[in-house]
Amino acid sequence: PKEVAEGNSDAGAAAGSLTALDFSSMRVRELKAYLQARRVDMNDVLERSELETLCEATRRAALGDPPRAASGRACAGPSSATTTGQPEEAGEEEKEAPPACAQCGKTEAEAREEGGKLRICSLCHAKTERYCCRECQVAHWPTHRRSCAGYERKRKKGKARE
Q: Is the pTM above the cut of 0.70?
């Protein structure tokens, strides 16, 4: 694997390093080793591009960086304008929260401001889990997979990876 910052090609060092890595130049087994070293569940990853995205999301999470949307902009979650930090007053009726990204919390309005929209899971089409970008969906998959009816149907037909 190529470490962009240091040019180190040692696979063991790259698997343990948090410096900027060029995941696109890594072999599939190296991508898997990187994720295994961080104890990341990758049982349901079907495509090489998903491995690369999961590696990048894992690296960013370890560094405290927010996920990046496909546009390259940081996916930093809801803006301060949508979160007041004030507890709801007792007796006040609970209001239904607007749909938000299941991973980062970005609302539909915030996604639109960035030229995007919240999307739903393409397997189960449940409107309970929405995502502002592919990176957030991939990062949230280990959690959503447990409740994903579409994944369960594929698994029963033998078309999903265990």
A: no
